[in-house]
Amino acid sequence: MTTRHLAIAAILTLAAAGSAAAQTPASTAKPGPKRAKEFSVGAVLAGPSSVGSAAAELNDGSGSPSVTLFRVENRLALGYGVEINIAVELRRAFWVEVSGGWTRSSVDSRITGDFEDADDETPALPMSRFLVEGAVLRYFRERGQTAWFIRLNGGWMRETAGGNTLTGDGLIAGGGLGLRHWWRTNGKGSVKRVGLRVEGRGVVRSGGISLGEKGLRFGPAGAGHIVFGF
User: E strands within the chain?
Assistant: First the structure.
């Protein structure tokens, strides 16, 4: 075989190999499972809780209290507001959630024991609370379209009252028990499920507005949300 014949054979072999490679489909990595997501919006109720008490007193010449002019007991009244949650499922029955909310309430100051025997009074000062939280949820006892869950949360809050004359930042945390029920689970668009979520919570706060009392403050709360599943 001549050199010319060998060159032609080599060219034909390379062309055939290139054609075969072009026809071989490229391998693609199998995508991982899509994580379920939820968006919920609803109402919250914050139960009454103490924000401290104090006494107005006159001191004697040595600086010791001698006369109590009146006493004040301060409480946050029942509050109401809105809350938005965005949740992602990390694994079956275990979710993480980011929440933002606003609550409207009032600081009620009950004035008693007036030195001049004036009637007791309870003036009220409007108050707002803004918060951003993170939470974890663990679902259990899932039966059909209904499941119970435990929720633990914590985050930052700001409380303002009297046109921002009283303002305080603080921390808020808590936990609760709730129930989620799907009304629809066969959606055709991006929203696959629609349902209702309700829960009762115990809340602990540190900081924020404090009138004569420091430390932790406790109170009940509840929430109800419309839930959209993706």
Answer: 37-46, 49-59, 65-76, 79-91, 94-112, 124-143, 146-161, 166-184, 193-207, 216-229
- Report pLDDT for 15: 53
Query: How many CB atoms lie under 10 A from the CB of residue 163?
Result: 8
For 34-59+66-229, CATH number?
Answer: 2.40.160.20
Q: Are residues 189 and 156 in contact, defined by beta-carbon separation less than 8 angstroms?
A: no
pLDDT at 25 > cutoff 70: no
For residue 168, give the 3-state DSSP assignment. strand
Each residue of 108-143: pLDDT tens digit?
888 887 777 777 888 888 999 999 999 999 999 989
Distance of CA 70 to the CA centre of its chain: 39
Asked if residues 198 and 181 have their Cβ atoms less than 8 Å apart, the reply is no
Name the amino acid, one letter, at 212: G
DSSP 121: B
CB burial string 16-52: b at 16+ within 10 A, e below = eeeeeeeeeeeeeeeeeeeeeebebebebbbbebbbb
Report the C-alpha gap between 31 and 132 in whole angstroms.
33
